[in-house]
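Researcher: Here's my situation. A collaborator sent me these components and asked whether they could plausibly form a single complex. I don't have experimental data yet, so a predicted model of the whole assembly would be a useful starting point for our discussion.
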Amino acid sequence: MEWSDAAGVDEVPEGEVRGVKVGDDLVALYRIDGKVYATSNVCTHEYALLSGGWIENGEIECPLHGTRFRIEDGRCLGPYGTNLRCFRSRVRDGRIEVALSSEDGA
Amino acid sequence: MFLQDYWYAAAWSNEIGREPFARIICNEPMVFYRTQAGAVVAMEDRCCHRRLPLRMGRIVGDKIQCHYHGLTFEPGGRCVKVPGQDLVPPSARVRTFVVKEKYALVWVFLGNAALADEANIPDYHWITDPGWGARGTHFNVKAQYLLIVENLLDLTHLAFVHATTIGNAAVVESANVQFKRGPATVDITRIMKNCAPPPTYVKAGGFTGNIDRWQYINFAPPGFVRLETGGCDAGREGDAAAKKITLRNLNIITPETDATTHYFWAQCHDFDVRNQKLTDMLFEDVKAAFLQDVDVFEAQQESISRQPNAPEVDLNGDAGGLQARRILRRLLEQQTAAGR
């Protein structure tokens, strides 16, 4: 598995989401209850950046039309769009790394 | 349909004197005048007899007299005199509105007067605070108020509409934008690090190199949008020796009709506050920019009125505007459900 550097851990505060570019991929990084998650940052409905949205109950809500995705597996909870790509992530020496090749989600 | 139990700015204080002054606020025609003691009266601009607008009448002492048959109304709206007859019909009265003067503006409460709590007028103290330089004005815009709210919540248009005034490409390209939402508020934070200062900032702040810019935007219903913008020498936030300027752009957006708006706004600055030339320069620069916006609003409104059902696409920058529309829609639904 190939790991790519995405961001410093301290750039993603607890309970928040940050958008980063890893290579050509737009990735959303989350930290929830201390654990880091990574999904595509692009809403499957109208391609809005999810990093502008809101986290509630382990779900990210798209800032435009309110579609919600479960962060841990990318499942689309509606009302629009389809499931979201998820990536494996890990923390090494204070850096968040993601594995873009290994799609993880549903 | 507009939100009823809210304060709306109807005029700048200095617009109202001892002559009738008429304005439509949220589809309600109102006439304003001052009593001899200086209190502002706001009443329906329609005589209860044959509906002539009272603005055509004249002020007699503390009362207003209709131009048609001379019915005379006291500040509480009751008709106290019908020339040519001894008795005044008990239903001869016009509606009045609760009025409060604050922050150099005349505010009217549209709905149930019992709910008119002055504490619900949002904070605009920068307009009258001696610690700030400030100048404001009023635009009568031929466009629905939501277009103005939406415009202020999405500053990515600066680089295009205002390329010659307050915008540049950095606003669109390098901004880190955060949206926060409360039960009935939207807060947007845009931080732009190490970008070229726009022409206005160079003139006002004397910046010579790149700057860090910030824009904090707060929306509260129905049409209150308060912006704090500023800049400091790049990478030197918190450094007392660095150049830094803070500006407040305050918007009080009152629907006039479904497709027109009374747009009150003021530009305030926290540096060199007694320098009227500076106050005027900042005001004129923003005014030039806002007139560019008005051209956009009115053209949008024409387009909307011509084809109201045409579809729209939403972009990332619309998050704040969409949240504001959602809040307003929910509050209106609640109002309808309550039978108002």
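Model: Some features of this prediction you could bring to your collaborator: The helical segments of chain B are 145-152, 158-161, 169-173, 199-205, 276-306, 319-337. Chain B touches chain A at residues 177-179, 181, 313-316, 318-319, 322-323 (CB under 8 Å).
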